[in-house]
Amino acid sequence: MKKLNFVLLMLVAAFAQNALAQQKPALAWKDVSKWSYNRGSALSADGQWFAWSSGPTEGDLKMTIRKTMDTLHYTYPIGATPNSLTFSKDSKYAAFKISAKDAEVKAARKTNKPLYDKLTLVSLADKKETSFDRVRTFSFSGDSPSWIAIQFAALETAPKGKDDAKGTDVLLYNLATKKSFNLGNVGEYAFNKVGDKLAYTVDANGQNGNGVFIRDMKTGLTTALDNDKASYKSINWNEDGTAFALLKANKNEKYKDDVYSIIGINKINGDLTAKVIYNGIDDSTFPKGMGINTNAGPYWSDDQSTLFFGINTLDKKDEKKEEKKDEKKPEGKADSTAKAKPEVKPEPKKEDIEKPDMIIWNWQDKRLQSAQQTQEMRDKNFSYTSAYRVADKKFTQLADSNMRTVMVAPQQLYAVGYDNSKYELMGNLDGQSYTDIYLIDLKTGAKKRLFEKLYNGGRLSVAPNGKLASYYNDGVFYSIDFETGKTANLTGNIKASFIDELDDHNVSKPATQSLGWSSDSKYALIKDNYDLWKISADGKNVVALSDNWKAKKSEVMGRMRIYTDEKGTDLSKDQYFSVFNAKDKKAGYGYLPAGKNKIEILFMDDNSYGALAKAENGKTFVYTKSNFEQSPIAFASNANNLSGAKQVNTNTPDQAKYAWTSGVKLIDYVSSNGDSLQAALYLPVNYVAGKSYPTITYIYERLTDGLNNYAMPSFPGGGFNKAVYLSNGYAVLEPDIKYKLNDPGMSAVACVVPAVKAAIATGIVDAKNVAIHGHSWGGYQTSFLITQTNIFKAAAAGAPLTNMISMYSLIYWNSGGTNQAIFEASQGRLTPGYWDNWDAFTRNSPIYHIKKVQTPLLLLHNDKDGAVDFTQGIEYYNGLRRLNKPVVMITYRGENHGIAKLPNRKDYAVRMLEYFDYMLKGKPAPEWWSKGVSRLDMEKHLEARAFEEAPQN
């Protein structure tokens, strides 16, 4: 009898629980506006405090500061902007800005009223607060913070012209004594690393008293290092905090813009501080027509012998032509016998001559004229890396018009230059990237070529000593000694492949991942497709840090950078790695103890883990953990092996109010091409075994590695949010796609259709109510799939490519380049051009199979799409319309490839769900789908929907 009562009790409890679950409402789009979640976080240097901001998608937020291993916490309202928090390096104070409230921001938009941030300074020991109004920026004073510097916003009445003074007051506030000192008209300021020196510039009205100053924060003594009728900016301390460099701008009557100089400050000692000023214009070795670049921050070499900076072209002022004086007529009576002089018409001024407005496109242009136009300002401001050796006053231009990219190596002994000028035109045509690589001796300026026509730049990685580098060529990693030129084979003798086995683009032997060098420059850390190898610089000593993980399908994904200012991987310290299993999608952390040669897996489970952080001066570790139904939550541990981790915070507090996904299944299936693949099938709310559900198939490329990722409710740029659909009773299927060259569309069919059938076979997916959606490349595949199969009842394609032939030679307007390189070597996977590959281009173009479409289509294509030309959507829409097939295209005017403006994102998200609810759930058809909306009625239509969809705050 007791057993029967227990069974009945369990049945009643289960029924009650199910009834309670069914009472929870689905997550509606209006709920997303008030959806509260965490963003941003900070860990104090001692690891005792952790902070994060949280609040709704739209509305006012709060900042929480909490003891990482205790329940003590403080909470503060911070307005509508998710400002970050900064801890002082001694972990005694926290500071953060408070912005205007959401209602104030909305009201200010209507009146153009300026809004200002406040600063709150909190003493963590006693929670005492100090506030400051109208704050622009703030900074604690380095590693030993006795001070906080606070710069205030300019007054509304301050002039705002280009040449007007930009300086404002900076308050130096002593954290211990509470005494403060004001510095007026400060343009910029920066503490050195220790925090005992403050460098700042003055930018005052009329440039009176302008200069660069240094203040000794212990004595209060301030020294003027340079004064001039000039402006100063870009203060850049060296890492040790013993020297800094900055820019100085002077007016020059020969040039349109200011002429800049480099100022180098070192050997800091009051009035005896060393200073060097270099502007290049007075140097005969400096290239004519060039000047110091204002957009590149100058910096010292480690040994303070050399200043590095950028140079670019200076624009000279137009020379004014003298106007011709009218000839004076001779006084007195005119000679009746003299012949009348012909009237002389004055020469038209240069600026008055009408000129054609044109562009000349030449087949020999390395970059398309559209690319040159799009990148014009970048080209104009391009910074050519240069150096100035102080002792011998020697200038060296390191980069030039051919070798535009130059990277100064660690220790500043050498620089590495990349010259693709000989291959740029062809690379822009077919996407295959080659470059010549040069080594530059920074003492002599001598250049020598290391490699000719190296594919993809060889993935060169320079060691911390600046004398060695690893590089990749034809499936093998090598090392090269810059001093001797000697090379060594690093991976050629290892019985593993260092060619990325999942990269199916048209590239030659794509490389696996290099994790750089050990901090002592003795070892390169290089990964094959699964294991991580520690390889000596000469290639003779090889150790597998992960021992044959391939057998388990596990792999090292990357290294956690947990040490401040690290240079390379310090193997004398504990190191941490993200680890992942490609088969079951489990993830976790690996641990390499100091001085050891074997990575231990600390844990791997069905969660997704955020970046691991370590307290700079403490033993505390913090990381986030989440999965498909649990939003990211922070955990903290004081153990090297991360044991005993304690939960620090919670997230998405409103989630419990709504119906949520019931789980996820990983499906194994075989594509039509014979490849073993996987698909993630997310279960709808209140899933009941044996019942089938309407399903959205969401596609892009390979998606199952994100199996355990949390889908944060939001208004997406493409309309689809997985969390909202799952909460509204849909299952969601995300299959992997493996591509064959010259068959991108057919590859999608070969992978997606079997995935859908495998999902239907589980009984979860309703075979009669399956839809498909994708955006961009996913939009292309969606628009193609419905020409090849009728398995989908409805489709929604965002910004799709539809005609591979016309698209191939169109412009990618966001960069100005052609799509040809993208087609041949990147996502398109079609090569070469259609004239030699006609069958493949037509076979994989939706437009050429349009007559077979039987699936209703919701099409999104914006008129300013800079990635997939608007004509692609128009061509597909008009073709379907001509064939009288059900299609609606939505265009948001002025929007690019994804929807950026919040009202538009909200609108499309609602329309897509309305569409799928009608097609898959039998709900009434929205009028904009069933009847359309005329241009005259559009305003009334939008007003009605705006009222209906307004978030209920």
TrEMBL record:
Pfam family, one: Peptidase_S9
UniProt keyword annotations, A-Z: Hydrolase, Signal
Taxonomic classification: Bacteria, Pseudomonadati, Bacteroidota, Sphingobacteriia, Sphingobacteriales
Name the UniProt record assigns to this protein: Prolyl oligopeptidase family serine peptidase
Residues in Peptidase S9 prolyl oligopeptidase catalytic domain copies: 753-921
Signal peptide: 1-21
Native source organism of the sequence: Pedobacter albus
Region described as Disordered: 318-351
InterPro entries hit by this protein: 6-blade_b-propeller_TolB-like (IPR011042), AB_hydrolase_fold (IPR029058), Peptidase_S9_cat (IPR001375)
